[in-house]
UniProtKB/TrEMBL annotation:
It is found in: Cell outer membrane. It comes from Paludibacterium purpuratum. Keywords: Cell outer membrane, Lipoprotein, Membrane, Palmitate, Protein transport, Signal, Transmembrane, Transmembrane helix, Transport. One of its GO terms (biological process) is protein secretion. NCBIfam families: III_secr_YscJ. This is Lipoprotein. It is a lipid-anchor.
């Protein structure tokens, strides 16, 4: 009977396939978004939890497809830096230039978060340049460079004016014409799910037949012992 149990265990391992870690130390919400996207594209995924967070695992044969699908959809999203991270308590007072650079970075992060909440936006990146006043030269007004990758299921290009207005209104002293905006439509290409190799199919069939034979043989031996 021990041999039967071992064979059953080997069969389960063969049928389950080889799994590999996709991402680890994920937050629950981010892991659920990634998992939903993979499953909706017919990529099987397992979710494991530990003290460090959530780990997602996929079949080795679909690893490349999973990485590409998540990348094209901007997942996992990069963690945002908050004001408490740039200005921790007890830190020495920095120069006005350093303080200004930190505040611009926080403003860029807040704007990226706002743009990412727009329907269809996959990735949003914002870089803000404050007004510069060099001695003896003309003042250079504030400007912002905005990059957005969006889903092909929405027509985000039709809302370009609204996006410019949103960015300019969110950054003091920034005029809409000083917002450089690039909208890129995402293109997702996935290969077909790999077909099971013929040799693997035959090995599974042979293993199943062997398992059935062992069960039948064990049942026959048990019947003989009871008859004796």
């Amino acid at each position: 009977m021990r041999s039967v149990r071992l064979l059953c265990l080997l069969m389960l391992m063969m049928l389950a396939g080889c799994k590999t870690d996709l991402y680890s130390r994920l937050e629950e919400g981010e892991a659920n978004r990634m998992m939903a996207l993979l499953l909706s594209n017919r990529i099987a995924v397992d979710k494991l939890r530990d003290k460090d967070g959530v780990t997602l695992r996929v079949d080795e044969a679909r690893f490349v497809d999973a990485i590409e699908l998540l990348r094209q959809n901007g997942l996992p999203r990069k963690p945002l830096v908050g004001i408490e991270d740039l200005f921790p308590s007890g830190q020495l007072v920095s120069s006005p230039e350093q303080e200004g650079a930190k505040l611009r970075y926080v403003k860029s992060q807040e704007m990226e978060k706002m743009l990412a909440n727009i329907e269809g936006v996959i990735v949003a990146e914002v870089s803000v340049a404050q007004q510069s006043t060099a001695e003896g030269a003309a003042d250079v007004p504030a400007s912002a460079a905005v990059y957005i990758k969006y889903s092909p299921t929405v027509n985000l290009a039709a809302h370009e004016a609204e996006i410019r207005a949103l960015v300019s209104d969110g950054i003091p002293g920034l005029a809409p014409q000083r917002v450089s905006l690039v909208l890129q439509r995402a293109l997702v290409r996935l290969s077909d799910p790999p077909r099971e190799p013929p040799m693997l199919r035959w090995s599974v069939v042979v293993a199943l037949l062997t398992l059935v034979g062992l069960f039948v043989g064990s049942a026959w031996l048990l019947w003989r012992r009871r008859r004796a």
